[in-house]
Every structure is written in structure tokens, then in C-alpha cells.
Specification:
By secondary structure, this protein is mostly helical. It contains 10 helices and no strands. Helix content is about 80%, strand content about 0%. The relative contact order is 0.15.
Length: about 210
């Protein structure tokens, strides 16, 4: 009887499959979908690597598992839905403007010169006007989870992770107890490995659809 793979072995397999898919996509002719998938898979690879090294830290593991889950849903949506792909690129403008506004408000409150930030904002708006995309808000992860039949996973992951990432009362007042109880960390790792394996399947699907 074969010995089941441990979590590290499974995660290293995920890394290899993502790297193989990335190599496949990089060898294809450039288009907007390929570029979006390359960027998403590169970010997933970074998260998996952080997941591998941070699995002893409850807070870091919570953050990485949630990010891996969300990245899986976004990549699945972008890879199978033209409107989703267009929205994904359109979100770059909204994200950029939100960042600029945040910095402008912060600098203004401390009496700092923001003229350069105004110039950057004008450039961002001009770039959008010259593109085929519309400014869009970020994806609603709950809606994506519903669309792809992962609502229960979404509810579990976001409820659990939010309590362990943010400065919640239970995290702060029961910090030592949470660390000593391996059940929380082990559950998160199982979730993370499960969705890494889902990403493996998605990578194989992307490769087969991009074989021509």
C-alpha cells in the first residue's frame, strides 16, 4: 500500500504543476488572457511558497489560505469568462485610483505636496480612456463562490480566517490557547492543500485549452 503524501509533498507538487503551466503559457503567443493567467499563476505560486514556509504561524496561514482560495476563484472565473477577463483588467484602473486617492488624502492631511500624485492620476485616467476596458470594482468573492459551488467553503474560510487575521477579541484574548490547539492550524492547512489541488486541476485544464 502506498504511503499518503504529507502536506509539504503535496504543496511541492502544486508548485511544480503551476511552474509547468506557466512555462506552457509563456511559450504561447501573447494575448490578454494569457497575460492575465500568467500574472495570476505567478501570484498563486508566491502564495503557495509563503504557505509552505509559514505553516507554523496561525495568522500567516490564515491569510495565505484565504488568498489561495480567492485566487483560485478569480483565476477560474477569468480563464472561463470573457466578461470576467474584461472586468479583471478594468479593476486595475479602479484599484489605481483608490490607491492614489488614499495617498493623496494621507499626504494632504500632513500638509505634503500632492501635485505629482495628481499627474499620476491624470495619466491613469488617460490610459483607461485609450483602452478597451471600463473601470470596475473588485470581484465579489462571495458571488464567485456561489457561481462555482463553493459557498460553504467561502463561509467557512472567511469566518475562520477573519477571526484569525484581524485583531479580534478571541485572537487577542485567547492567543496562547489558539496556538496550543493544533486543530485550528491543521484545519487551515487541510483547506489550503485542498484548494492547491484544485489549482492543480485548473492548471491542467488551462494547459489543455491552450495546447494549440
Amino acid at each position: 500500500m502506498d504511503t499518503p503524501l504529507n502536506h509539504l509533498e503535496n504543496l511541492n507538487i502544486t508548485k511544480t504543476i503551476i511552474e509547468d503551466c506557466l512555462m506552457h503559457l509563456r511559450n504561447k503567443t501573447y494575448n490578454q488572457l494569457n497575460m492575465a493567467l500568467i500574472n495570476l499563476l505567478e501570484e498563486i505560486l508566491r502564495e503557495v511558497e509563503r504557505f509552505i514556509t509559514g505553516r507554523s504561524d496561525l495568522t500567516l496561514t490564515s491569510l495565505q489560505v484565504r488568498n489561495i482560495f480567492e485566487l483560485y476563484l478569480i483565476t477560474k472565473h477569468v480563464s472561463t469568462n470573457q466578461e470576467g477577463l474584461n472586468d479583471w483588467y478594468g479593476q486595475m484602473h479602479k484599484d489605481s485610483i483608490d490607491l492614489q486617492n488614499g495617498f493623496m488624502n494621507l499626504f494632504s492631511s500632513h500638509n505634503q505636496d500632492i501635485s505629482e500624485l495628481h499627474d499620476i492620476q491624470d495619466f491613469i485616467n488617460e490610459s483607461l480612456a485609450n483602452s478597451p476596458f471600463e473601470s470596475k470594482r473588485e470581484f465579489n468573492i462571495k458571488n464567485l463562490a456561489i457561481d462555482y459551488d463553493y459557498l460553504l467553503d467561502y463561509q467557512a474560510i472567511h469566518k475562520l480566517c477573519s477571526k484569525l487575521i484581524h485583531p479580534s477579541s478571541i485572537k487577542i484574548n485567547s492567543f496562547k490557547a489558539l496556538l496550543e490547539d493544533d486543530n485550528y492550524l491543521n484545519l487551515l492547512i487541510i483547506f489550503g492543500v485542498f484548494f492547491c489541488q484544485k489549482i492543480e486541476v485548473l492548471c491542467q485544464t488551462i494547459k489543455s485549452e491552450k495546447s494549440n
